[in-house]
Each structure stands twice: as structure tokens, then as C-alpha cells.
Amino acid sequence: MKVVVISGSPRKNANTQILMKYVYEYTKTKNQDVKLINLSEGQVECYRGPEEEYNQVTKDAAKDIMEADVWLIGSPIYNSFFSAALKNLFEYVNYKETEGKVAGMAILAAGNIGFIDVQTLITQLLSYFRVITNPKAVFLTTEAITENNLSEDGKSRLREMVDETLKMAEKLED
């Protein structure tokens, strides 16, 4: 099973990447075919249309998403929405190649507000791609991160999301 982990924040020192790097490392203990797309690295280009030429990082990111069986998506909440960088990434994805994939998500915010709204928005986006979404998203606030370290509770909840999402994907393969 191929898995792609997506850190959806474009910020250089993003807290979202702390979560998703943890998810990536944990997922590698469960499945060796795991790739990380970290939008904090700033190499995925802005989508300009299907006829345009894009850099190799952008092409590889789109290819990795379309080839993966499981998507583990981490998104910050910006202005009551998921990041524009995450939406931009999905502009490259061909919905004809994504039906039946499974996704799990983690959402990070500064406070306890907007989680359900952003979960709904991401789920709607994934529905367009005909992706089955784990209904049990992980909601964390920035308080779960101190000095670039994730709390034990945060780690536990992320591991549970990964395990449940992989289990869903395995059941659908049968």
C-alpha cells in the first residue's frame, strides 16, 4: 500500500509540519512505501493551468498523490479555512485517478474554534476526488506543541488516526 503524508502549511516554521513529520515517521513503522509532501519547503509551484510546464518537485508531488492508496493530510486553519497552499496542491490532481483512495486528516489551530468547519471543507474537497475520508479527524491546538515537540496526547491521537485510516484502506482492498 502506498501512503502519502501531506503537510499543508506553506509557512517556513510551520507547526503543521511538526505534526506531519511525526505522522510520516510513525507511518514508516507501519508501511515502508511512504512519501512526505511538505508545503513548508515552498517548492510546489502555483497552479497556472494544465498546459503550463512545472518544476520536478511539483510534478512529483502530483504523481505521488495520484499513485498513493492512502492520503494523510495535515492542515492549519487560516481565516476559517484550510491553507491556500493545500488547495493549490490539489489543482494538480486528476480526479479520474483518485477514486477509492482513503484519507485521514489532522487539523491544527491556535484555539478551539473552526475545527469542524475545516474538516467539512477538506472532506468536501476529498469527496470531489471520490476519496473515502476517515470521519475521525485529529484536532489539535498549538498548545500541543512546545519547543518544536509534540505532546504525548497529540502523538497518541495522531497514531490512532494513522492506524484507523490504514485499517480502513486495508478493508477496502479486500
Figure out the total of helices.
5
What Rg, in angstroms, do the CA atoms define? 15 Å
The CATH class is Alpha Beta
Total domain count = 1
Number of E-type strands: 8
| Secondary-structure-derived class | alpha/beta
Gross CATH architecture: 3-Layer(aba) Sandwich
Describe, in plain words, how this protein is organized in 3D:
The protein is α/β, with parallel strands linked by helices. The chain has a single domain (3-173), classed as Flavodoxin domain (Rossmann fold, 3-Layer(aba) Sandwich). The protein is 41% helix and 20% strand. The strands form 2 sheets. Strands 1, 2, 3, 4, 5 and 6 form a 6-stranded parallel β-sheet that branches. The protein has a two-stranded antiparallel ribbon with strand order 7-8. Strand 3 (70-76), helix 3 and strand 4 (102-109) form a beta-alpha-beta unit. Helix 1 crosses helix 5 (152-173). The longest helix has 22 residues, at 152-173. The two termini are 12 Å apart. The model has no long low-confidence stretch (mean pLDDT 95).
Write the layout of secondary structure elements.
Blueprint: E1 3-7, H1 15-30, E2 34-38, H2 56-67, E3 70-76, H3 84-90, E4 102-109, H4 115-128, E5 132-133, E6 138-141, E7 145-146, E8 149-150, H5 152-173
Parallel strand pairs: 1-2, 1-3, 3-4, 4-5, 4-6
Antiparallel strand pairs: 7-8
Summary of the model, kept short:
The chain has about 170 residues and is an alpha/beta fold.
Pick out its properties.
Rossmann fold, two-stranded antiparallel sheet, 174 residues, 6-stranded parallel beta sheet, 20% strand, globular, alpha/beta, 8 strands
